[in-house]
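Ligand: S-adenosylmethionine. Inputs:
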Amino acid sequence: MKYWLSTIYSVDEYIYIRFHGTNIVSYLFEMSNYSKVSYKDFWEEKYLTNYTPWDIGEVAPAFIKYFTKEQNQEKKHINVAVLGCGRGHDAFYIANHKKSSIVYGFDFSYNAIRFCNKKKNEINSESNTYFHQVDFFELVNEKKWSTFFDLVIEHTSLCAIEPKRRGEYVNLIKYLLKPKGLLIGLFFMRPKELSGPPYGSTPDEIRTLLQEGFTEIEKLHIEECLHKNKLEGDEYFGVFERMS
Ligand SMILES: C[S@@+](CC[C@H](N)C(=O)[O-])C[C@H]1O[C@@H](n2cnc3c(N)ncnc32)[C@H](O)[C@@H]1O
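Predicted complex:
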C-alpha cells in the first residue's frame, strides 16, 4: 500500500492521506474540481440503501400527457435517450408507448442499471430498451452518439448535477440530438441558492442555458406532480427543438 501510494501521489499528497485517514475516496473528492454528486459512489449509495426520494415508482404524468398527444403522429423509427434514467420508469413507458422507438437509458449507478435490466428481462428481453452504466458526460467522447438521437428526455438529472456543470450538460444534449431533434424536459424549479441535490433552477435560467441552439416549441409550464405536497408547483415541463 505504501509503495503504491508513493508511486502514484506526490510526497505532500501521501502525507495528506496518512494524516487524514485512509478514506481515499473522500480524499479524491476534496482534491477534485467536482463535488460528490459528480461521482457515481454518491448515487450508488442512494440505490443501495434504497434512499431514492425522487423515485415515484412510475412514469411522470407529464410524459404520459405529452406522448399521448403524439399518438397519431407518424410511426417512424426514432432513437430516444433518457439521461440519468434511474430505475427506468420513463424509459419503459416511452419504449412501450412508441413501439417503433429504441430507448437508451444512461445512468452511472450500477444498481439503477441492474434494476432496469432485470425489469427489461421480466417484461421482454427482446424489448426496445437498452441500458448503459456510464457517466453521461463521457458520451461526448463516443462518436457513435453524435446526432444519434431524435429525442432526449430530461427528468431530474439537470438538478442532480453540480450547477456549474449545466453548460456542459447542455453541450452534451446538443451533441446527442439530431438537427430538429427534441429535448423533452421536466425541470425542477426552485431558487438555486437552496442546497442540493436537487439543485433548483428557474424558467429564465433554463431558457438562457438553451438560448443558443434551441427553440422553445412548448413553453415551460407547471405540470402535475406525483410528489404531492413536497414538489407541487416546482416541476415545469417544456419542449425545446435543436436548431439545424
Ligand atoms: C435524481 S435521480 C433521477 C432518476 C430518474 N430520472 C428518475 O426520475 O427517477 C438522478 C439520477 O442521475 C444519475 N446521474 C447523476 N449524474 C450522472 C452522471 N454524470 N452520469 C450518469 N448518471 C448520472 C444518478 O445515478 C441518478 O440515478
